[in-house]
Amino acid sequence: MSRPKSTSRWSAASTALAGDDEVVAETFKVLVLGGSDVGKTSVVRYFTAGGNVPRLLPTVGMDFTDVVVTVSGTRVRLRVWDTAGQERFFTFTKQFFRGTQGIILMYDITSMASYQTLMKWLQTIHQMGMESVVTVMVGNKVDLEGKREVPLQTASKLASRKGFEYIETSAVSGKNVHTSFYKLAESLIFSRGIFLPGEEVEARMQGGLTSSRAENGTFKVEDRSKEERRRAAISNRKLRHDSERERSKGSSGGCCS
Prior knowledge:
By secondary structure, this protein is an alpha/beta fold. The protein contains 7 helices and 8 strands.
């Protein structure tokens, strides 16, 4: 079945906390992957909280935020995991690939080194057998165009070869931040076959947003239960311990396959 031409619209709504009983068609686990300092946390926070965010310290471990989005009349929950980008955390991050349905693969357009790190993430995705996972490749910090080190054509060719959507974003100006997540949500919805029938989609689109407002989107940030937060904290402690153990093996001459 060929994918229909995209006619998506996002309904306007302000950010609001929502409970776990939010009615959605499906919940998708999404990992945000990329090297350190590429702006993963800033992009995620811009998407979930809106507006510019201050410079943040590097993420240690992993954390997630639930966001409800509506695409073409279909409401889904994106469980967005923000991951540590440092290479020493590659090992523990692999443990979280299980059940992943979507990936935001990010690099910094002003850093060729971050683009090379992206290649390592692609290798990890291949090793984990996750190449069929819906992926959007994001070149962040487009507000620093004058400092660009990674040519647009180079990145877009890679994305095309891999079958990824490619978008360039800025967590400073907000350019394409929402679009990157909505593109991912749209692809996930299509891949699962949960689009509404065309006639119903068109009916729900009547009086919808114009293209100039589509960047705002519809999303609700869900508050997690105490139990979910407790499990996440325990997992992070265990994963940090595993990471330290792997590094100790490496420094003592051991190796791992």
